[in-house]
């Protein structure tokens, strides 16, 4: 079935300057530490949706960026905001025609929408689309969060959520080396600062090559109290970095 994602996302993402600014701040906070220093790196935002990450990359002077999505409504929205986004029905075929072309792939809140049986194939195709040393940054719902059920079932089109162990297992099985996971937070719409929850695991991993893999593990460590009040969410994080080895 072809879902109309606007029915779910429109109330969460109003088309206002304030919301674009808030999303830009969030993307800079989430992605900034893991982005390549080379602003000419070729970046693919797979399942880019409205294009918030692409807008942030533009603002950070990345010059070779492109987005991909299957949903016509979200592609039209992103294009209306001047973002380089293509609508593609067969994403695996599209990736197969671009082997070894990207330096970085973003997979932000996408993998949980993919049926479980299709997740390994997608991750293999994404790995093959990267150059040596390329990196994947992804976010998924965190099954270990206190309100994991909200994030797993709040969107009808979700097929799965992940723990650090299950995400680590899936990535290592599909051509990625030394994935490291850490938690980020996002309060559900209308919730106060003291109701902050760990919303998603983000993993950044690099493509495996012919050499011996570097040892690594999914880690997390607390950096502030979950009950902390204030405008900024508290976080559990573990640094995420690896190279294609």
Q: Span from first to last CA?
A: 40 Å
**Tally of individual domains:** 1
Instruction: Specify the helix fraction band.
Output: 25-40%
Given this structure, which CATH class is correct?
Alpha Beta
Structural class per helix/strand content? alpha/beta
CATH homologous superfamily caption: Vaccinia Virus protein VP39
CATH fold field value = Rossmann fold
| Main sheet overview | 7 strands, mixed
Question: Numbering strands along the chain, what is their spatial order in the largest sheet?
Answer: 3-2-1-4-5-7-6
Helix and strand string, N-terminal first? HHEHEHEHEHEHHEEEE
* SS elements, strand count: 9
Please tell me how large the radius of gyration is. 17 Å
What's the CATH architecture name? Answer: 3-Layer(aba) Sandwich
* Global mean pLDDT: 78
Unreliable runs: 188-200, 209-245
- Tally of separate helices: 8
In short:
By secondary structure, the chain is of the alpha/beta class. It has helices at 6-9, 17-31, 52-59, 72-80, 91-96, 119-128, 148-153, 164-173, and strands at 42-46, 64-69, 85-87, 102-108, 130-141, 176-185, 198-207, 221-222, 236-237.
């Amino acid at each position: 079935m072809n879902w109309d994602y606007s029915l779910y996302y429109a109330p969460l993402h109003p088309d206002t300057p304030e919301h674009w600014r808030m999303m830009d701040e969030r993307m800079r906070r989430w992605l900034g530490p893991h982005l390549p220093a080379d602003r000419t790196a070729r970046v693919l935002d797979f399942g880019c949706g409205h294009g918030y990450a692409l807008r942030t990359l533009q603002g950070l002077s990345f010059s070779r960026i492109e987005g991909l999505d299957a949903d016509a409504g979200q592609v039209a929205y992103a294009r209306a905001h001047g973002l380089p986004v293509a609508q593609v029905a067969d994403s695996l075929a599209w990736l197969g025609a671009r082997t070894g072309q990207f330096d970085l792939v973003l997979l932000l809140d996408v993998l949980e929408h993919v049926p479980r049986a299709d997740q390994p194939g997608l991750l293999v195709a994404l790995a093959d689309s990267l150059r040596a040393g390329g990196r994947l940054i992804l976010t998924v719902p965190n099954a270990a969060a206190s309100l994991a059920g909200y994030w797993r079932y709040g969107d009808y089109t979700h097929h799965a959520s992940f723990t650090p162990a299950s995400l680590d297992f899936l990535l290592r099985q599909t051509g990625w080396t030394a994935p490291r996971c850490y938690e980020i937070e996002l309060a559900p719409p209308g919730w106060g600062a003291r109701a902050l929850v760990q919303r998603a695991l983000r993993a950044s991993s690099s493509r495996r090559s012919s050499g011996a893999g570097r040892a690594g593990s999914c880690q997390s460590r607390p950096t502030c109290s979950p009950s902390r009040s204030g405008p900024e969410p508290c976080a559990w994080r573990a640094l995420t970095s690896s190279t294609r080895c």
